Amino acid sequence: MLRPALMVAALAAALPAYADTDLDALRAEIQEMKTSYEARIQALESRLQAAESNTAVTLPAIATPQGETAQPARNAFNPEISFILQGGYAHLKDLPERHITGFLPDGTPEETTRGFSANESELVLSASIDPYFRGYLNAVLNDGSIGVEEAWFQTLALGRGLTLKGGRFRSGMGYQNEQHPHAWDFATNNLMYEALFGEGYGNDGLQLNWVAPTELFTELGAEIGRGANFPGTDRNQNGIGSYTLYGHVGGDVGNSHSWRGGVSYLSARATDRSGSFMDFADISVDTSFTGDSQTWLADFVWKWAPRGNASVNNFKFAAELFRREEDGSLNCTGGMCGAGSPGTYQTTQYGGYAQGVYQFMPRWRTGYRYDLLDPGSRDYGINNAYLPRSNYRPTRHALMVDYSPSEFSRLRLQYTKDRASEGQDENQWYVQYIYSLGSHGAHAF
Amino acid sequence: MKPLHLLALLFTAVPGLAHAALNIFACEPEWGALATELGGDAVRVYAATTAFQDPHRIEARPSLIAQMRRADLAVCTGAELEIGWLPILLRQSGNAAIQPGKPGYFEAARQVAMLDKPAVLDRAQGDVHAAGNPHIQTDPRNIARVAQALSARLIEIDPDHATLYRTRLADFNTRWNAAMARWQIQAAPLKGMNIVVQHQAFPYMENWLGLKRVAVLEPKPGVEPTLGHLAEVAAQLKAAPAKAVLRAAYQSARPAEWLANHAGLSVVVLPFTVGGSDRAQDLFGLFDDSLAQLLKAVQ
Predict the structure, then answer these.
(1) Chain B 165-224, residues with CB within 8 Å of chain A CB atoms
(2) Same domain for A137 and A264?
(3) What's the rounded mean pLDDT across residues A207-219?
(4) Of the partner residues B49, B87, B130, the one whose CB lies closest to the CB of residue A442
(5) Same domain, yes or no, for B28 and B173?
(6) What is the percent of chain A where pLDDT is above 70?
(7) CA distances from residue A138 to A74, A122, A125, A169, A198 in whole angstroms, order as listed
(8) How confident is the model over B278-290, as pLDDT tens digits?
(9) A116 and A152 belong to one structural domain
(10) Scanning every residue of chain A, which has its alpha carbon at the shortest distance from the alpha carbon of B173?
(11) Of A97, A176, B32, B250, which shows the fewest CB atoms inside 10 Å?
């Protein structure tokens, strides 16, 4: 009984590999096998039903000790493999560089591809390693390079609400930080994360997470790591380069509302962190920062779905705020700074974003996001003479509509009013596609 | 490093909060109801979803993670029904007892013979499940099989209450057999009835009652019905008419109503699980009401 069925499955799986001429013959063969088996199964079923109706009262199915019936593996793939294709079209102004006025850049130049582009594709592999560990890999494929975004193990059997993660991972602080670009609600990153981390804060290290045994969701986490990523730098030394602490609480209000909020803290150190500023003559000067960087985040998410059923209508609100303090020295070269001008660097800066995304009918969502940064207080010591300290507040408005034919595909149109850099007022248009191939990933709250 | 001290304090200050009752996390209300039948006062049941939510699409909400953290036993359907949300709860809970493969993790779909196993796994066929159709709770014979296995699991995890679990299972079996005999007789007029379903949510019920599914409103499993496809179904029904269009309580009312208006058949809203209607307050009520709704369509 099983063998022909397996054969059919194997043949069916092998089908795409055959040339067209063989295809039809095989199809016919399989169809024949299918019909003959269906007929036999139907015959068996009708016999079974007849037998059941004769003995329905006296012989309920309980008598059969079923046990664990043979089933295929829990997932069709082991490891679970999924592949994310992203790309689209961007209508942007032709600017050589995009600065966020008043904030030191993260070193990687902001994505400014105009016109059509196939953005980074993501490859995600994950599986249980054994009963004690789970492994996860997220690699980003670009022209000529593969970047390892995340590669970590996670404990499964520690118990008592404890989970230890090790390797390269996205920090658990904030709300959006753990999300990769395909999971964002907008085609572009928010200004806050762009200014704070470039994309999101990742680290090579360890994370310990604890969930409290309470009805109110409460989690506390601590991370230690290399701290090589912005706002820190790789400092080629033993010990801990940066650490993170975070806490979240969350719960439901009735059947229709759920929420989560939290606070996080990141402490990092930088040595010769390179960046750039505009001097008073509006010439780009190179900067090098050495010192401490401390970041506090507050995040809040609220979701609504009528009776908890999100399939027709649902709404999501998310907001995050930050405060960053950097204290150290800044050396600038070029322009008015000349061959080099070492000065102090003390800043306290703020910012945040708020966004709402509403699904107004099945498959269709619309969303609006507002970004605002405050350059706060800055003191560059003697470099105050060369570097302007404008009180300009960078802002950005983003409005998007997206259409998801299924859980695995999404098309998006976005309009952005970008005023991140002083004197610029740019209208940006984005058309984006996100496709997810392979195993069915689960998305966090 | 003050914050770390605080953290260390919290780790130690909150003990296991030992409960006498076994904490059961039921992914769907039917398994919650079954656990209550079998466990009585020895268990404390939390149902993660309601009859008005689509079990395929649940948010991995913080409240669910908190409940999973405290669970001694997770009772879920399996067969990939909860694939979009359950894995997150299991991983983030930090609860070793309910991880797959442990006695604290129970999948109901493993106890029954699965229907509608796809021959080819291809997303072009919609949201198909490799293990077969996961909506096993619409056939009372499946409930009986799951009850048997779940009771054995309760005894394994909580041997102190073994006698209680055995007694309650025997009692449940007696009542359930009597109810199944009653339903069998009541359902006689339904045999061979042609039906249309909104989602392929009822193959087990169709199999049990001898209903004949002639069309599905979703063009592919998990893909919302489109107007074009509904029109096709309506045209198809002219040639081969059906008595009723079935939908589960959680599903959108509009597609079934549209078809009912255009093809002249009645809409049957089935509770689908415990809590899906006023009468379906437990497993017995679930089938009493399901049959009553179906029988209305025959008259």
Answers:
(1) 173, 176-177, 180-181, 184, 207, 210, 222-224
(2) yes
(3) 97
(4) B87
(5) yes
(6) 81
(7) 22, 7, 7, 9, 18
(8) 999 999 999 999 9
(9) yes
(10) A62
(11) A97
